[in-house]
């Protein structure tokens, strides 16, 4: 890492990483550990996956897999909440769930890229695709109908 990161240098970095993995908003994590928001955000998106890779190299595979599993678990929950909120017409909760799911997707994409060293042939696990997908889906967030349509199309494609 060429740039110093206040999160990486933080004595409680391990706790910060674990808190971020649980899906806590980076803003509240920053507050809790007395850090600025932008370094926490940058750390979450750029350094966290690398830390997990290092954890793997240090033969902490179980730990890394556990974190990956936790993110997957959270994603299942977020999508479940999204579905229920949409059915109930609770748009505020739906939007929050979408936002959470998008964050999980980004993290999953990066984790998949870091943990899986085999050549990626499946588009659905390609970090580049997941990132692009997250950008597309995120850009459509202010337009619920379009957002839902695109998300639906992407999901049916992914499952097929
Ligand atoms: Zn960092």
Task: List the topology elements.
Layout: H1 13-21, H2 26-32, H3 37-57, H4 61-88, H5 91-115, H6 127-139, H7 144-159
Bound molecules: zinc ion (ZN).
Written description of the protein model:
- 74% of the residues lie in helices and 0% in strands.
- It contains 7 helices and no strands.
- Helix 3 (37-57) crosses helix 5.
- The structure holds zinc ion.
- Residues 5, 7-8, 43, 47 line the site of zinc ion.
Summarize the structure.
74% of the residues lie in helices and 0% in strands. By secondary structure, the protein is mainly α.
N→C terminal distance:
39 Å
What binds here, in terms of ligands, is: zinc ion
Helix content: over 70%
Shape: globular
Structural class: mainly alpha
Strand segment tally: 0
Number of DSSP helices?
7
Mean pLDDT comes to 79
Q: Name the beta content range.
A: under 5%
Radius of gyration: 16 Å
Low-confidence stretches: none
Report the biggest beta sheet as strand number plus sense, adding barrel if it closes.
Answer: none
What is the N-to-C order of secondary-structure elements (H for helix, E for strand)?
HHHHHHH
Key structural traits:
160 residues, globular
